[in-house]
Amino acid sequence: MVSAIEATSPPVPRHVAIIMDGNGRWARARHLPRTAGHKRGVEAARRAIEACAQRGVEALTLFAFSSENWKRPDEEVSSLMQLFVTALEREVPRLMANDIQLRFIGAREAFPVRLQQRIAEAETRTAGATGLKVVVAANYGGRWDIAQAARHLAERVQNGELTLDAVTPEALDQALSTAGLPDPDLFIRTGGEHRMSNFLLWQMAYAELYFTDVLWPDFEACHLEAAIAAFSGRERRFGMTGDQVSEASHA
Ligand code: FPP
User: Fold this and answer.
1) What φ, ψ does residue 200 adopt, rounded to 5°?
2) Which of 26, 34, 38, 213, when mutated, tests ligand 1's pocket best, judged by the most ligand atoms within 8 Å of its CB?
3) Is the pTM of this model over 0.85?
4) What are the phi and psi torsion angles at 212 (to 5°)?
5) With contact defined as beta carbons under 8 Å apart, do 88 and 46 qualify?
6) What are the pLDDT tens digits along the chain (251 aa)?
7) Ligand 1 pocket by C-beta < 6 Å: which residues?
8) In this structure, which residue's CA is closest to atom 4 in ligand 1?
9) Were 217 and a residue from 34, 40, 60, 95 both cysteine, which residue would form a disulfide, CB within 3.0 to 4.6 Å?
10) If you measure from the C-alpha of residue 116 to the centroid of ligand 1, how many angstroms do you get, rounded to a whole number?
11) How many CA atoms does the CB half-sphere of 48 hold within 13 Å?
């Protein structure tokens, strides 16, 4: 249920979810290999993390590698894996120094063992942080997440731990990989496409959607500010009428 207070946009979203699109086009426009775009993409991710931490955002989810990205050329996939390892090795001390927690969602067992180790280390080392939660979606798909949550609940019913009546939206929510995080209230996609691309399908039921043509490597703090300003200007009704929302916000 949405409370009266929640039924308007707070000035700052609690959870921002981003599809970081446009690395390849950024590189192509400069006659560079696609990998150069991904490298610059890591820098843009660092800027977005800093800007969200400064703005008091609680959680930032970044879509780094979708379940469908395995279809890319082998060289691009392996250079992305290497880039993730390097980025983790380099960035974790900085995250720790800034009290930022890092968590990964997605089917990580498909990744090279070295990357899985770096992911586990990064999660352990930042687990105690109390500031911004950065969630990296890697080998993630929204349908995969809903299916794994459904399987988990089904197993519990089968074992007699849960009754069928207890299979509710709230129970499914708690079985998703994002359990414990607020739902994203602002979704940003860069790179000019207007799609959800199998991102946080369940969790973004009420997210405000914001699309920009800016290519991800060019994404700066000012672009995040523009997205937050657009979010703050929107009325979030959660199924109510505009009049009900006004009454609720003045109550
Ligand atoms: C989309 O650009 C981006 C990706 C497939 C993911 C790679 C993202 C990064 C390297 C950013 C770093 C993130 C973290 C958290 C380490 P694209 O290749 O689809 O661009 P295009 O649409 O222009 O081809």
Assistant:
1) -80, 75
2) 38
3) yes
4) -135, 150
5) no
6) 444 445 566 689 999 999 999 999 999 999 999 999 999 999 999 999 999 999 999 999 999 999 999 999 999 999 999 999 999 999 999 999 999 999 999 999 999 999 999 999 999 999 999 999 999 999 999 999 999 999 999 999 999 999 999 999 999 999 999 999 999 999 999 999 999 999 999 999 999 999 999 999 999 999 999 999 999 998 777 777 777 677 776 66
7) 20-25, 38, 41-42, 45, 62, 64-65, 69, 83-84, 87, 136, 191
8) 64
9) 40
10) 19
11) 33
Task: For residues 136 and 104, give the distance between their C-alpha atoms in angstroms, rounded to a whole number.
Answer: 5
Is residue 69 annotated as part of the catalytic site, yes or no?
yes
Radius of gyration of the CA atoms of the chain, in A: 19
CA atoms within 13 A of residue 104's CA, in its CB half-sphere: 23
Which of 16, 19, 21, when mutated, tests ligand 1's pocket best, judged by the most ligand atoms within 8 Å of its CB? 21
The type of residue at 220 is E
Concerning whether 159 is annotated as a catalytic residue, the answer is: no
Q: What residue owns the CA closest to ligand 1's atom 1?
A: 21
- The residue to mutate among 16, 18, 19, 23, having the most atoms of ligand 1 within 8 angstroms of its beta carbon, is 23
Residue nearest to atom 5 of ligand 1 (CA): 65
